[in-house]
Design a protein that fits this description.
The chain has about 70 residues and is mostly helical. It has a domain at about 15-50. The chain contains three helices and no strands. The longest helix is centred in the middle third of the chain and has 17 residues, at about 20-35.
Length: about 70
């Protein structure tokens, strides 16, 4: 199985114009799937990889109160 690198990701998906963050995520997922021998990771595993890369959910924005019907 060929090793996935940034160059391989971009060669595999020509014209996709992946951002650096998207390439980083794709490489991290390929590495995880290879090391864990998981060709189809669960969403739990995908979230774990994203968190390992430093992604965090933003704090929720406060709700804007709307006046009641006048």
């Amino acid at each position: 199985m060929p090793k996935f690198t940034e160059t391989r990701i971009q060669e595999t998906f020509p014209g996709s114009n992946l951002s650096p963050a998207e390439v980083e995520f794709a490489v991290a997922m390929e590495r995880y799937m290879r090391l864990a021998r998981r060709p189809f990771p669960t969403w739990h595993e995908v979230l774990r990889v994203a968190l390992m890369l430093g992604y965090r959910k933003d704090a929720p924005k406060p709700a804007v109160e709307r006046p009641l019907s006048e």
